[in-house]
Design goal:
This protein is of the alpha+beta class and about 400 residues long. The protein is about 45% helix and about 20% strand. It has a 6-stranded mixed beta sheet with strand order 5-4-6-3-1-13, with helices on both faces. Helix 8 packs antiparallel against helix 9. It binds alpha-D-galactopyranose. Alpha-D-galactopyranose binds next to helix 5.
């Protein structure tokens, strides 16, 4: 296997997944592939509104050990789940109804199905997954599964699709096969954000990488450990629907612009009455978040972390007040860190409704932040939050593994 160009901090997990592959399927895998999770610094809920986002790839992610088969069958296992999901690839193009406990496998099956549709390469495969991303915490564990498996298929089959096509395959799998109406940020972040912050214009999928000042900033994720799956799913779908209605109202009130993020804050103000109170707030978040993105990106280009951080704090206030996807736990963490020297900014990351706060801080501030957040949070909620000090993540690709236990 090709030697990886970067250090993969979780390579021990890569080795464990390779060892589990031998136990599950007999014989070694052909390769183990990693893809990172992400945090989003700015651009909350802008991707499905055709706006701009600014995610960073992190050093936690998902590993997939794979071996191609020549009989067209798929066998999927995970270190975190019992059993093996088996599917006949000759049939599969739509989601099977009877996955039951194997519902987690819909993500990689969707990737496989989309890969076949686009390349015509109907290959069988055995795969074992493992990850060190907390599930349903807003760090994109599902996109990391999609990109790890999509990259594994692309490299193992020699199809040469590349990172953007793999991101599109992951997104099509999640929206079509799995049925989550998400935007494209998470898949693009996992596939392309390594090596800086990814400034992605979701309307036309153009992007560039912006450097984060080396040594001057660190990302700390504070995890509420609050389960959020159901509320988040429903709330997310509601927001997608509300934004599409707001866009339609704005189009009939004035100029049709195609996506909500393309409207100006003045146009939203002018249509306040037609929008009504809820759609007005959703549209105000989207259009003001575009302004925060522009100012935040300017600040980052100028190396002004305080300027970027101010937009990050303002973004949290907007998702709390106008988009209404925050909760007491997330708000309390943001309020606690706001008072601490060396903290540049903080906001919820991911869809919201629980999950994590991302804190941008100077590395010397981390111990103080952790101690004060732990103390304030435990006093108020009676439980301890989790902390992950993150390093920038490597790009998706093959990793070296050790088969000795
Ligand atoms: C979830 C979705 C993303 C994005 C964020 C909010 O993570 O999967 O597409 O919409 O929420 O910014």
């Amino acid at each position: 296997m090709k030697a990886p160009e970067q250090d993969y901090p979780g390579d021990q997990l890569g080795s464990r997944v390779a060892q589990a592959f031998v136990r599950s399927f007999g014989g070694p895998s052909q390769g183990v592939f990693f893809a990172p999770g992400r945090v989003n610094l700015l651009g909350a809920h802008l991707d499905y509104n055709g706006g701009d986002v600014l995610p960073v790839a992190i050093d936690l992610g998902v590993y997939a050990a794979v071996r191609l088969r020549d009989d067209g069958r798929l066998r999927l296992a995970s270190l975190d789940r019992e059993g093996v999901v088996e599917v006949d690839g000759a049939q599969l193009l739509d989601r099977p109804d009877d996955l039951g406990a194997g519902a987690w496998a819909a993500y990689p099956l969707g990737v496989w199905s989309e890969f076949v549709r686009r390349t015509g390469t109907r290959v069988g495969i055995d795969v074992v997954f493992a990850g060190d991303l907390p599930i349903a915490s807003g760090l994109s564990s599902s996109a990391a599964v999609e990109i790890a498996f999509g990259t594994a298929l692309d490299v193992s089959c020699g199809t040469g699709l590349g990172a953007e096509a793999v991101a599109e395959i992951g997104h099509a799998a999640e929206t079509g096969f799995v049925g989550v109406p998400c935007g494209i940020m998470d898949q693009y972040a996992s596939a392309l954000a390594a090596g800086g912050a990814l400034l992605l214009h979701c309307a036309d999928r153009t992007w560039e990488r912006l450097a984060l000042p080396v040594g001057g900033v660190e990302v700390l994720v504070v995890d509420t450990l609050k389960p959020r799956e159901l509320a988040a799913e429903r709330g997310f779908e509601d927001r997608v629907r509300e934004c599409s209605r707001a866009r339609d109202v704005l189009a009939s009130a004035g100029t049709a612009r195609g996506v909500l993020a393309a409207y100006g804050t003045d146009e939203v103000e002018a249509a306040r009455e037609e929008l009504g109170p809820v759609l007005f707030k959703r549209a105000r978040h989207v259009t003001t978040e575009m302004q925060r993105m522009r100012r935040g990106v300017e600040a980052l280009r100028a190396g002004d972390l305080r300027g970027l951080g101010a937009e990050v704090f303002a973004s949290h206030a907007s998702v709390r007040e106008d988009y209404e996807v925050s909760c007491d736990e997330l708000d309390a963490i943001v309020e606690t860190v706001r008072e601490i020297d060396g903290v540049f900014g903080a906001r919820l990351t991911g869809a919201g409704f629980g999950g994590c706060v991302v804190v941008l801080l100077h590395p010397t501030a981390r111990a103080d932040v952790q101690a004060r957040v732990r103390d304030a949070y435990t006093r108020r909620f009676g439980t301890q939050p989790g902390f992950h000090a993150l390093r920038p993540g490597p790009a998706p690709g093959p990793v070296d593994v050790d088969l000795q236990d």
